[in-house]
Model the fold of this input.
Amino acid sequence: MRIRNQIEVTPEAAPMAGARGAFIQWLVAGPEGAENFFMRRIIIEEGGLVPEHEHPEEHEIYVLTGQGRVEAGEASRALEPGDCVFIPGGERHGFTNTGPGQLTFICCINVVKA
Done:
C-alpha cells in the first residue's frame, strides 16, 4: 500500500497545445506501482481551459470544486461539485472553467498497454 497527500505532488502544466491555466497532479501512477489505472487531480484556474482532444484512455471524473463545462462528443454539459462523468476512450473532449475560483476534479484513466 502507498499513501500520500496531494500537497506532496507538484502540479504540472497540462501538456496539450492550447491549454490555458490548466494543471495536472499525478496522484497515483506508475512510480507508485499502479499498473492498470492512474489517478490525477486536474486544476483549471478561473478563465482556464483544457481544449478538446482525444486519446485511447477512458476517463472517470469526479468534480471536487468550482463550476465548469465539459464538451464530449456531441454533448455539452455544465459541471458542479459532486458530478461524475464517464468519457469513453477515443471520444473527443475538453473542459472549461466557467465560474469564479478553481475548477478541480479527480480524473482516473486506464493504462493503455502496447
